[in-house]
Amino acid sequence: MDFTADWSIMQTLGEGAYGEVKLLINKNDGMAVAMKVINLEEHPEASVNVQKEIAIHRMLNDPHIIKYFGQRTEGSVGYIFLEYAPGGELFDKIEPDVGMESWQAQRYLKQLLSGVEYLHSKGIAHRDLKPENLLLDEHDKLKITDFGMATVFRSRGKERLLDKKCGTTPYMAPEIFLRPYRAEPVDIWSLGIVLVAMLAGELPWEKPMALCVEYTKWKSNDYMSESPWKKMDNLAISLLRRILNPIPSARLSIAKIKQHRWYTKHHTQIRGPELDRS
Fold it and tell me: Which residues form the Protein kinase domain (predicted)?
């Protein structure tokens, strides 16, 4: 890897779909970069998928989207260089079975909504929004990453229906399993599930299908004594009822979410400063 002569490989940050993600530090100016390492020999299908991901990611420039810096291939190994987010994943900010305070959840939701609104304005759907794909920078600013399942759904003002079943099952909207489906409502559904995770520290169901008891209870309004809903106040439930509406056309738009009282109200900080649990 001659191109890393000016860079030090510090540590492995995690595992991607096709290989590891490593932290690089520039020896001259100290700049930190995340490097995805893709083994094209082990994953021959990766080449096409990664090129599609790059084609979408390089179009994006927003404070709530991880920046794409470039790529290169050497032999059977591909490298993608991305903005490094030292705050880690939103997932690690969620206390299991507890979640986080509502003021924190509101703050992260506003940033997530801003990033998703930007994507949709560009005609792009992410299709895999979940806490593991939401990173935090040194200022605790949320940034969307991993565009492996993203797609262009609107071009030259014309919107197309999508038919690929993709995403992470507990975060997927019910219409994805039926197909075809509109792009924007499936991202809105996913950010609703992210909000549930932030407020309750758990997910509401494994899969939004008729055979799932928890989902059936949600659809039939027989859920208030159940977890995670019993952990939330009525205002949060009111918002989630409108976001997690099984009918895509009746689901709240981003503009309508911004008008909801839970989104606009001032949430007071109850606990003291967060303790380091490491």
Answer: 7-263
Specify the 3-state DSSP secondary structure of 276.
coil
What is the rounded distance in angstroms from the CA atom of residue 99 to the CA atom of residue 190? Answer: 17
Summarize pLDDT for 153-168 with one digit per residue, the tens. Answer: 999 999 999 999 999 9
- Mind listing the domains of the chain with CATH numbers? 2-83 (3.30.200.20), 90-264 (1.10.510.10)
Q: Would you state the structure tokens that stand for residue 56, as one six-digit string?
A: 């979408």
Per-residue pLDDT for 17 more than 90?
no
- CA 186 – CA 192 distance, rounded (Å): 10
Is 164 among the annotated ligand-binding positions? no
Which residues lie closer than 8 Å to 50 by C-beta, 6 or more apart?
Answer: 18, 38, 78, 80, 148
Q: What's the pTM?
A: 0.93
Ramachandran area for residue 259 (φ above 0: left; ψ -120 to 50: alpha; else beta): alpha
Give the pLDDT confidence score for residue 43 in this predicted structure: 87
Give the C-alpha separation, 76 to 64, whole Å.
Answer: 32
CA distances from 81 to 35, 92, 112, 230 (A): 5, 23, 22, 43
Catalytic residue ranges: 128
